[in-house]
Amino acid sequence: MQFKDNEAIYLQIADHICDLILRKEFSKDTRIPSVRELAVSLVVNPNTIVRSYAYLEEKGIIYNQRGIGYFVAKDAIDIVMKLKMDQFMSSELPQFFKKMALLKISLKDLKELYHKTHQTNGKEISYEAQ
Amino acid sequence: MQFKDNEAIYLQIADHICDLILRKEFSKDTRIPSVRELAVSLVVNPNTIVRSYAYLEEKGIIYNQRGIGYFVAKDAIDIVMKLKMDQFMSSELPQFFKKMALLKISLKDLKELYHKTHQTNGKEISYEAQ
Amino acid sequence: MQFKDNEAIYLQIADHICDLILRKEFSKDTRIPSVRELAVSLVVNPNTIVRSYAYLEEKGIIYNQRGIGYFVAKDAIDIVMKLKMDQFMSSELPQFFKKMALLKISLKDLKELYHKTHQTNGKEISYEAQ
Amino acid sequence: MQFKDNEAIYLQIADHICDLILRKEFSKDTRIPSVRELAVSLVVNPNTIVRSYAYLEEKGIIYNQRGIGYFVAKDAIDIVMKLKMDQFMSSELPQFFKKMALLKISLKDLKELYHKTHQTNGKEISYEAQ
DNA sequence: GTGGTCTAGACCACC
DNA sequence: GTGGTCTAGACCACA
Predict the structure, then answer these.
(1) Contacts of A47 by beta carbon, 8 Å cutoff, 6+ apart
(2) Nearest to C28 by CA among C81, C71, C82
(3) Is A61:A21 a contact under the CB 8 Å cutoff?
(4) Does D85 touch chain C (CB under 8 A)?
(5) How many angstroms separate the CA atoms of D55 and D60, rounded?
(6) Chains in contact with chain A (at least 3 beta-carbon pairs closer than 8 A)
(7) In the structure, how far is the CA atom of residue A82 from the C1' atom of nucleotide E11, in angstroms?
């Protein structure tokens, strides 16, 4: 996994796990990889994983069974969707529209860009169809 | 001026100056406030302004006449637009589309949101018409 | 390390690191000293090192892994060479030729001076043969 | 006159006057422009000219007759030549050779560059023939 | 007056 | 431990 350096790694990892949950690669009550396993496979410091999991647990997306591991909460998908939707509507969308205005990009331009993106780059949105 | 916590103050100041340039409140070859003046008026340390100005100068948006002050470069608007456009096309737009897919927001939904925003919140985009 | 008075310390440090890279004392992906370490060993303020490193990172010569340190970029040598070559061809060389003309130094004179220098002072250019 | 921003303007002006002396456009005991005249014609602050003249006077290149103006010293040419030659031999030449080594530019390369420069850009060295 | 640089020391997020 | 940012205050060259 490649990390962007403008966002905290632990948040990128947490986000990635959310994605896997949304794509149903991790189902409810599934055990997710241990801190050590994931640290090894992602080549990051175990503390970083600890932080990711703590973040996800605090949001109620995963829960911990002591001595056993972390598991996907039963309403994980709903929580993740709600979190993302809230952030999108309250922050990302207005910022995006503001930026469009600044760059004088019309809704029509956006529509074209959208179609262009979804023709050439089918892989990125493949999980939409799953 | 209010500063957000999640972005460096010197970048927020630089960005704000870019906005003023785009809105033509600062024209080319206009002298912008001196480091000390702006530091006082924004209630930040002069060094923070120095950093903002160094950043803008490095991008070619402003230039320095020694002992006199900083001035808006003649092609400042083009540079600012290019910088923002590049960032938008390479990063913000793909991320936005990805998020749309994740949240199952269609282009049609987006269109509705767009129109809703631009009815209720005309002030925010008023400078578009200038 | 001794610093000249007529050039900013942070630039002298940056330049010195470039030299070390060119001489392959720092190879690609090598971790360079931490800000604090180098500040102690060069007896300068850590902020000064921060500036040197920010400068080098901005040029793409080094990159940062958060919480770990700075590393030499994989094409650092090319970038350093390009930067120095550009400056040489566009500025230093013309100035030098102009000065030669002014002092009425011919190409033949220069050749003699060159040979004289490279006999008596072999140490300075020893890394040329490496 | 265009000023480079990497060198103090007063030094650039002083240097320019030295050039004029070397080209014999200012002969010995000629009165050079008054501080005010030159400040107006170069569009700089009069204080800057004062500094240039002070610098030249301190070097013995010009002298002042109170209430009348500044005049070119009788051995101005010798002094200018000596100053420039000293600086060239002790500092610029070694630095230049060092840079050549660093950039792996041979004497042969230099020769070619020299000829190329002196074919295409005859104006710059025109005063050599005067 | 202008900006450029440096020091000293602090706080923060992150690994 | 790492770097990133900010403040406070100082000194300097320059216009």
Answers:
(1) none
(2) C71
(3) yes
(4) yes
(5) 9
(6) B, C
(7) 34
- Chain E: nucleotides below 7 Å from protein CB are 1-10, 13-15
Chains A and D touch (3+ CB pairs under 8 A): no
pTM: 0.85
- How far is the alpha carbon of A96 from chain C, nearest alpha carbon, in Å? 27
How far are the Cα atoms of B27, D14, D61, D63, D84 from residue D54, in angstroms, in the given order?
Answer: 38, 9, 10, 9, 18
User: Could you list the pLDDT tens digit for every one of the 130 residues in chain D?
Assistant: 778 888 899 999 999 999 999 988 998 888 999 999 999 999 999 999 999 999 999 999 999 998 899 999 999 999 999 999 999 999 899 999 999 999 999 999 999 999 998 876 545 444 444 3
- DSSP run (H or E) holding B53: helix B46-58
First to last CA, chain C: 23
Contacts of A81 in chain B (CB under 8 A): 103
Q: Which of C66, C68, C70, C71 to mutate to test the interface with A (most CBs of A within 10 A)?
A: C66
C66 Cβ contact list (under 8 Å, min separation 6): A5, A8, A9
What is the distance between the alpha carbons of residues A73 and A31, in angstroms, rounded to a whole number? 10
Question: What's the CA–C1' distance between B87 and F2, in Å?
Answer: 28
List, in sequence order, every residue forming a beta bridge with C69; answer none if it has no partner.
C65
